[in-house]
Q: What sequence folds into this?
């Protein structure tokens, strides 16, 4: 299966991977997009982040992911956690449909945008943080950090974007951007100051890999919430 000269051919297993995922977890969503783009078939094991105080905290799942978060991916006989590390593993073992550009400067740009979103925005507005911030303040809190980060993303995109975040090829940066835009809408962030972000999000809306990964198309999406 693997055509990457650095990866032994027996490294990649034919056993279908299992993705521990939650329908509107943006981190699970990044990996779903990457798997779909690379056309890797996988099964989803839903982990409800809200049922009974969160299934991610149960003993059984803590064995899978000691960070008590989704996603986790069982693949090639290994259990991997952390969405960005997982995307890089997929890139290295399944080089088909690359998610990193060849050009080193473009690669750096992809990693920069990934980092802004995955370290500088999402962790500050995820469920565990918002629980600590409290119901009353959580919307303002999330808006603050998303706005701060989107200013930097928009600036990065002003020099890197073509059709997508970096040039005209879909990359890891796009896998991270689309779920973060969803979160921004969820917290009613005014997105008008970010026209490039909005344009790329719109561009990717109809892409089949992105569409299939959308929360509303997940097996654990509550039926009463078909549209986000
Ligand atoms: O249904 C819920 O409200 C629970 C959790 C989430 O949305 C996931 C997050 O914590 C946000 C995120 O992934 O960025």
A:
């Amino acid at each position: 299966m693997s055509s990457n000269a650095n990866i032994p051919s027996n490294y990649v297993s034919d056993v279908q991977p299992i993705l521990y995922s939650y329908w509107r977890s943006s981190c699970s969503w990044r990996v779903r997009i990457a798997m779909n783009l690379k056309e890797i078939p996988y099964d989803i094991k839903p982990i409800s982040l809200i049922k009974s105080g969160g299934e991610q905290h149960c003993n059984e799942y803590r064995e899978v992911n000691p960070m008590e978060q989704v996603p986790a991916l069982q693949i090639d006989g290994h259990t991997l956690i952390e969405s960005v590390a997982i995307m890089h593993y997929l890139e290295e073992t399944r080089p088909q449909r690359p998610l990193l550009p060849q050009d080193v400067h473009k690669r750096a740009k992809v990693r920069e945008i990934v980092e802004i979103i995955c370290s500088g925005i999402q962790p500050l507005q995820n469920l565990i943080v918002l629980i600590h911030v409290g119901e009353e303040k959580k919307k303002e809190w999330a808006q603050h950090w998303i706005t701060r980060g989107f200013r930097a993303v928009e600036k990065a995109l002003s020099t890197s974007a073509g059709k997508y975040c970096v040039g005209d090829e879909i990359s890891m940066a796009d896998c991270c951007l689309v779920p973060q835009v969803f979160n921004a809408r969820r917290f009613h962030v005014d997105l008008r100051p970010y026209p490039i972000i909005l344009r790329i999000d719109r561009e990717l809306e109809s892409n089949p890999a992105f569409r299939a990964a959308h929360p509303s198309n997940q097996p654990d999406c509550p039926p009463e919430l078909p549209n986000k």
Observations:
- The first strand starts at residue 18 and ends at 21.
